[in-house]
Design a protein that fits this description.
Layout lengths: L2 E3 L4 H11 L15 E8 L1 H13 L3 E3 L12 E7 L1 H11 L6 H14 L4 E4 L2 E4 L4 E7 L14 H13 L4 E5 L12 H17 L3 E5 L3 H9 L4 E4 L9 H7 L3 E5 L17 H19 L6 E4 L8 H9 L12 E3 L4 H7 L7 H13 L4 E4 L2 H16 L3
Parallel strand pairs: 7-8, 7-14, 8-9, 9-10, 10-11, 11-12, 13-14
Antiparallel strand pairs: 1-2, 2-4, 3-4, 5-6
Length: about 400
């Protein structure tokens, strides 16, 4: 079952209350500024009525569809709002109730206990992401939107990797196929021809190597060469064998949300409920990974900025990024030089650095754990400053 955090923002809460189909009076909850807001999906009316009663008895609020009390709907979402003590009381009360409410109570308890405790398992290593991580991009492609053709020479790649080492960076994301809007796919053989030399070089220099691919045959070969992470823009939904290949090699996997495919994804993308649809898609990708045997601590999520989203969609995701912390997985964002910066500022790719840093700061403030970006020195400075800011105490 997918349980969501909802950001404690009046406009955001009112929107969710409308989507639930609650009585308009319920919108008064949005005025209270309650610190924790959790949404349960598709609950049977009998169970939803109990949840609402027990929430009120625990000193917190719950919102259900207006027809729930008389069982005039088949199912309803439930929005619960309150403080940590109230949620603890609710969990204890639900554990003794029927209608599988004990299971819901346990999931709520796990969600609230683990929030903010983010670790990433890569092979045998556990990385604590209390400090945010910078994942530089290395595109060995002739046509990537930002740096296409820059790294087609192995000596140039080596110089780049040496520079990263000098800055203390030990992770790299290597891509062999452009996924910019309107791009065409390449055959696995061509993709491997591009990425394998770079992967072997980076592994040999001691980097944790992530490979940006959605093809299992490419993933299997780069993992065999020592790559540790597969970054799949299709969220394991393109190639039926991808999840199993990642599991077989003990790889970490980035599951990203994309609506459509790169060639057509920016042709008038439309959502009934953007945040809910993106989260639900990511949830299904996580389930696919877990069912194949991928370690739950080795899953990274990416909401897919710029992949099947218009300008407003991208900034809604950015504004409410904290809601993706519901998954209790590392949260990666790729905002570097994207059209959400360029189109808003009316600037070409090479003039988007300041805008990129601005949206990356917003992402970090809203819960991002890993920043995937092109600009090395500036992003290193950003991460260093943010991590120090995050650690200081009165």
């Amino acid at each position: 079952m997918l349980i969501d955090f909802i950001v404690a923002d009046k406009e955001r809460l009112e929107y969710e209350i409308d989507m639930i189909g609650a009585h308009p009076y319920a919108k008064k909850i949005a005025d209270k500024g309650l610190p924790i807001n959790v949404k349960l999906r598709s609950i049977m009316p009998a169970a939803a009525n109990i949840i609402k009663q027990e929430a009120i008895a625990s000193g917190i609020d719950a919102v259900v569809h207006i027809g729930t009390i008389e069982c005039k709907v088949d199912k309803t979402d439930v929005l619960i709002s309150g403080n940590k003590d109230g949620f603890k009381k609710l969990v204890d009360r639900l554990k003794i109730q029927p209608y599988s409410l004990k299971g819901i109570a346990e999931e709520l308890e796990t969600l609230l206990r683990n929030v903010g405790r983010v670790q990433l398992k890569i092979g045998d290593d556990i990385i604590d992401l209390t400090d945010k991580l910078f994942m530089p991009i290395l595109n060995v492609t002739p046509d990537s939107f930002s740096d296409g053709g820059k790294f087609n020479d192995l000596k140039e790649i080596e110089r780049y990797l040496i520079r990263l080492k000098e800055l203390g960076i030990n992770i790299i994301d290597i891509g062999g196929e452009s996924t910019r809007p309107g791009s065409e796919s390449v055959e696995p053989e061509e993709e491997l021809k591009r990425v394998l030399p770079a992967v072997e070089l980076a592994v040999g220099m001691g980097f944790i190597v992530s490979v940006d691919t959605y093809k299992s045959v490419v993933a299997e070969k780069v993992l065999r060469k020592g790559a540790k992470i597969i970054n799949d823009i299709y969220g394991l939904n393109y190639d039926a064998d991808m999840a199993k290949v990642c599991a077989d090699y003990g790889a970490a996997v980035v599951v990203m949300h994309m609506k459509g495919e790169p060639k057509t994804m920016q042709l008038s993308p439309y959502y009934e409920n953007l945040l809910e649809e993106v989260k639900l898609s990511i949830y299904k990708s996580i389930e696919k990974a877990l069912n194949a045997g991928v370690d739950e601590k080795s899953i990274i999520i990416d909401p897919g900025f710029g992949f099947g989203k218009n300008l407003e969609h991208n900034y809604i995701l950015l504004k409410y990024l904290k809601e993706f912390k519901s998954f209790n997985t590392p949260l990666l964002v790729g905002l570097s030089r994207k059209s959400m910066v360029g189109n808003l500022l009316n600037k070409p790719v090479e003039e988007r650095l300041a805008g990129t840093i601005a949206v990356e700061v917003m992402a970090l403030m809203n819960g991002a754990d890993i920043i995937r970006a092109h600009d090395i020195d500036e992003t290193v400075d950003l991460i260093k400053i943010f991590n120090f800011y995050n650690r200081v105490k009165v």
